[in-house]
UniProtKB/TrEMBL annotation:
UniProt keyword annotations, A-Z: Membrane, Signal, Transmembrane, Transmembrane helix
Organism expressing this protein natively: Bos indicus (Zebu)
Protein name as it appears in the record: Anthrax toxin receptor-like
Molecular-function GO term, any one: transmembrane signaling receptor activity
InterPro entries per UniProt: VWF_A (IPR002035), vWFA_dom_sf (IPR036465)
SUPFAM superfamilies: vWA-like
Gene: LOC109553934
Signal peptide start and end residues: 1-26
Membrane topology note: Single-pass membrane protein
Localization per Swiss-Prot or TrEMBL: Membrane
Residues in VWFA domain copies: 79-250
Lineage, broadest ranks: Eukaryota, Metazoa, Chordata, Craniata, Vertebrata
GO terms under cellular component: cell surface; plasma membrane
Length: 302
């Protein structure tokens, strides 16, 4: 399905529209649903975004909450590598990294999903080899908590270690899907950025989706250079905005690694489409009109 969003300027607003079966042709079709990647680039905060997805937003939200909540988790089956910064940090950075890792992993619910934990500093280490065994994962997270951060921030070494593991899988099955979250808690020197870009390009050869997560004193422009796509770079927000951040990161990356920007809906029951447009005022929602089309000829307004 193709849609054209609201075109009236004004802070951002997430619009949820209900489409009923009479508007649809017979059979099944594809459509975009709640495209989380757009959320990352809003100027209003994660707390504001989460408000539109949280209980108590009113009858509109209550009607879609059960369906929208399904997009908060990832139930895909693929290989998932977390490459974590274990270099010398500031304060409780390592505890924050471990906390974030555990919260993220809870969102990946498919028992067939295989997970690996890799740390990097002056050297890189595989804390948890690739596994789908949840008991092994639990032990791996315990070992992660026991790591003592030290050394320099050699992100490229962590990416290379992940790439070496992915290469083994890819050589046996070039259709294997894999994804890497690379987290850095500080700025990188120019040589490290260049070396990390090289490893990022290598991962692309294995059809791996790479996402960069920056926290503390990380530099966004460096992460852009390494990943090569702004939609795949995230910065850790304030603690009270963490839920919206995790929903966006998991929802976006899961859709990408599974190879689709669309979901399927069957005619015969009501369902919801999500539209996002920047610069709209929540106070003037009744004054806006959203125009969208279900095919090349029919345009609807609501």
């Amino acid at each position: 399905m193709e849609s054209s969003g609201p075109w009236i300027p004004g802070p951002g607003l997430f619009l949820l529209l209900l489409l009923l079966p009479p508007l649809l042709s017979a059979g099944s079709f594809q459509h975009d649903v709640l495209n989380w990647r757009n959320f990352r680039h809003l100027d209003f905060g994660w707390k504001t975004i989460h408000r539109y997805l949280s209980p108590g937003w009113g009858s509109l939200h209550r009607s879609i909450r059960s369906k929208a909540s399904k997009l908060h988790d990832c139930d895909g089956a693929f290989d998932f590598y977390l490459v974590l910064d274990a270099s010398n940090g500031e304060g409780n950075t390592w505890n924050e990294i471990c906390d974030l890792t555990e919260r993220l992993l809870k969102r990946f619910t498919n028992p067939k999903l295989r997970i690996s934990l890799i740390t990097y500093s002056s050297v890189s280490n595989i804390i948890l080899p690739l596994t789908s065994d949840r008991n092994e994962l639990k032990q791996g997270l315990q070992r992660l908590r026991g790591v003592r951060p030290s050394g320099t921030r050699r992100l490229h070494d962590g990416l290379k270690r992940a790439g070496d593991e992915i290469a083994k899988i890819y050589s046996a099955n070039n259709k294997a899907a894999s994804m890497v979250y690379a987290l850095t808690a500080g700025s990188l020197d120019k040589w490290t950025v260049w070396a990390a870009m090289r490893e990022s390009n290598r991962l692309k050869n294995f059809k791996t989706k790479l996402y960069a997560i920056g926290m503390k004193n990380s530099q966004r422009n460096q992460l852009f250079e390494i990943v090569g796509a702004k939609t795949q770079v995230y910065e850790l927000p304030k603690p009270d905005d963490m839920e919206g951040f995790i929903v966006s990161l998991v929802g976006n990356s899961c859709k990408q690694v599974m190879g689709g920007d669309t979901y399927y809906a069957c005619v015969g029951e009501s369902y919801h489409l999500g539209f996002y447009a920047p610069d709209l005022s929540p106070d003037k929602i009744s004054d806006y009109t959203c125009r969208y089309k279900l095919d090349k000829n029919k345009v609807y307004s609501k």
